[in-house]
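Retro notes, item 3 of 5
We never archived the inputs for the alpha-D-ribofuranose complex last cycle. Fixing that now. Sequence and ligand:
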Amino acid sequence: MTRDEQKPIVVVGSINADLVAHVEKIPRSGETVLGSDFTIHPGGKGANQAVAVARLGYPVLMIGKLGIDAFSDQLRASLRGAGVDIRAVDRVEGACGVALIEVGPRGENSIVVVPGANAKVLPEDIDSNIEILRSAGVVLVQLEIPMQTVAHLTSVCAREHVPVMMDPAPAHELPPEVLRTIRWFTPNETEAAFYTGSGAETQYDSHKQRDALFALGIQGIVLKQGARGVYLADLDGTEAAIPAFPVETVDTTAAGDAFNGAFATGLMLGKSPTESALFAAAAAAISVTRPGAQPSMASREETEALLERFGSVRASGGG
Ligand code: RIB
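Structure as it came back at the time:
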């Protein structure tokens, strides 16, 4: 299939400037710690996922909003430079979205997001970009834009028979009619616990979480379990557990976004869900070896090289 014949991936979501401090210890409430360095990177879950797809060489369009401030041009340039089609990224009055991120010594992080312009991604932006959405092979969405927009997007995609992959982050209650429209739902461990209401006894039980999420009407799940790897289950009975790739972790910021972008890309390239999850686990593994969100996204060549080294023995399960 030529690039012109490929149905694009469309991302509807946030674009943030990430203000990142590296710290020896993530501070508790009331505590002050000294950081070792400070950087500003382009980020935002939506923009990161779009860049992840573009770096893998697949066509991708972004629907989102930038503000008019010192970050706006840099954020736009990062998307465009990666190859994301930004014809549906508008500028609005006010500030861009910003994320304050602390990265600890093992690459772990804590993040505060201030939505800024992302709060102005509205239901009418879904309607005004309907042709773009109709052309999509899959639509990726996260929860850093208003919930009314997410709800409208999912109902429009259901009407137009366009599959939706939702990264349910940051965790937020979702109406039942939204949950029922989701083809792929990709929570991390904290989010899986939130959406399944699981206590300590089910927190690490993938099967219980799968059953709870299927009971909500979700059609396919990928649980992103950090160092434990990835668990995939589809309503057709496909099930796979993929261990994490053995890499040296520098910064886990946007590893989940790297995964989602690559999982969608794999599916669009005609890989099975299990193969796509393996491909995505490799892309996410590469992303954690590098600092920052968008700058850490893997290319197709790097991802395939890592898969060649470790991939063939890593998936257990069918599909
Ligand atoms: O998923 C990582 C992203 O979360 C960061 O880039 C930050 O902007 C927040 O949206």
